[in-house]
Design brief:
The structure is a homodimer of 250-residue chains. Chain A is mostly helical. The first copy, chain A, folds into 2 domains: 53 residues, Arc Repressor Mutant, subunit A (Orthogonal Bundle); 179 residues. Chain A has 13 helices and no strands. At the A-B interface, helix 6, helix 7, helix 8, helix 9 and helix 11 of A face helix 6, helix 7, helix 8, helix 9 and helix 11 of B. The first copy, chain A, binds a DNA duplex (30 and 30 nucleotides) through helix 2 and helix 3.
Chain lengths: 250, 250
DNA sequence: GTCACATTGTGACGAAGTGTCAATAACGAG
DNA sequence: CTCGTTATTGACACTTCGTCACAATGTGAC
């Protein structure tokens, strides 16, 4: 029985190793540069072994997506300790989301790609439900926060806010902002010339949303830019320092 | 000289034909089922000719993306004739966006995929700037509408709204809502069990955003669900009828 | 220690797809 | 009709995916 758990551990370790390699390859040679053969070559294992872990190439992405979400969850959990209003905590979630996207650009692209049909069509159901589970955990954090805001009256009861609907709105906003930001940055979009500031776009957008929910204090009652800075200092100082030194973690 | 324009016309026609085939293939066999070989086989032309039109497979998607945006623009232009406030017109844009996504599900997936790195990395620069140009046209429609709202005072000057920033927010929201809706519908997401209603999610989300901008009349001052219905009847009756009969147009 | 059995690993291989290019065909001006 | 130009073709070289018969290794009973 002991040997079994040891073996299982070894397999789990190898899986992480393979994922490290996959991520490294993607960072080096771009998204299209990831092939199963290259993973095989760079690892000390053979193709068959790699395919023992992942049913297909898309499953590798799925697994990376799960890792990505575990990392995100870690960032979001710190928010519990943040001394601030519920709205400030929601903004902290947005901060964490953006931080994640900057710190792990390759992983972020993986998450984005997972919403795309050509990937989803091919993933095995085991992997894709695993992604859903992780996703639900993140969604749960946001739902809980919004429910708390309603309970405390930060979001007036008269707004009749459904926590699920509001969470979906916030998620949509964050997801869309990130997806379009990275696209806008690279291209000759109208926004580039219009002084588009990707740094604060998410703060701005989430503030609009919260104001729409009538989530007190409103953005004209409080300086959320200051909150934004404070979140960075108090919750994510370590990660910001890494970014300063251009230490991107895939 | 006349022969040249005739020839050019023929080539343009053939390009449209090839795109029709590509779309048909995607609708039939899924996104991953699209191959250059199949396009070749189903058309009466050879591989070389197909590659004369499109530098690579991703260029086909790019071209479809442009077609997709031309169709969208057509939908949005009708809004000029809509008798309503600026905010109602913004909601009409959201309506058009959602209508487009329902009427052309395959094309919608193409647009979504274009925001993804594995596609973007491979597209030729000519095609991708063409996508940007089309995109800018759509963005321009929204910017103009928001500027008008500010000029009329529907959005109070005190909000200090930048039309570009607000457009980006609206675009992010619409894009994110659509991307996540289609993902949520298929999967065992928390939202499914929570009575997620994809039909009105975009209306709800855009209303939140407009409320956040303090775009008058606010959603508690007017029944925008009624507006939503009116938009369907007055602007998009034909398209709705098609949807009723399950006539999806790729 | 060893033997039968179970599990895990291997890499050559077939299938499928991409993009190229030398050869061929069609075109049109003179 | 002829000849240079341009468009078209499909065989080919190359890449990649995913499989499977076989090899190697690990396990536990005796």
């Amino acid at each position: 029985m002991n040997t079994k758990t040891r073996k299982a551990q070894e397999i789990a370790n190898r899986e992480e190793l393979l994922l490290d390699i996959a991520l490294e390859l993607m960072a080096e040679t771009g998204f299209a540069g990831l092939t199963m053969d290259k993973i095989t070559q760079r690892s000390q294992y053979s193709k068959g072994t790699v395919y023992n872990h992942f049913a297909c190439k898309e499953d590798v992405l799925c697994a990376l997506c799960c890792r990505s979400m575990r990392l995100q969850i870690e960032l979001y959990q710190r928010i519990n300790d943040f001394a601030g209003s519920t709205r400030e905590k929601m903004i902290a979630m947005a901060y964490g989301y953006r931080l994640f996207n900057r710190l792990y650009p390759t992983l972020s692209m993986v998450v984005l790609s997972m919403k795309t049909p050509n990937i989803m069509e091919k993933t095995s159901s085991i992997r894709s439900t695993s992604v859903s589970e992780h996703e639900n955990k993140i969604v749960g954090i946001a739902v809980k926060l919004i429910e708390e805001a309603v309970a405390l009256g930060d979001i007036p009861a008269s707004q009749n806010v459904d926590a699920n609907a509001a969470t979906f709105a916030a998620w949509s906003m964050a997801f869309g902002t990130n997806a379009l930001s990275s696209a806008v940055v690279h291209k000759s979009s109208k926004f580039c010339s219009a002084g588009f500031d990707s740094q604060y776009a998410l703060l701005y957008n989430v503030n609009l949303l919260c104001d729409g929910l009538n989530w007190k204090p409103l953005s004209n009652q409080q300086d959320y830019l200051a909150t934004w800075q404070r979140i960075g200092q108090e919750l994510y100082a370590k990660e910001l320092a890494m970014l300063e030194q251009n230490e991107t973690l895939y």
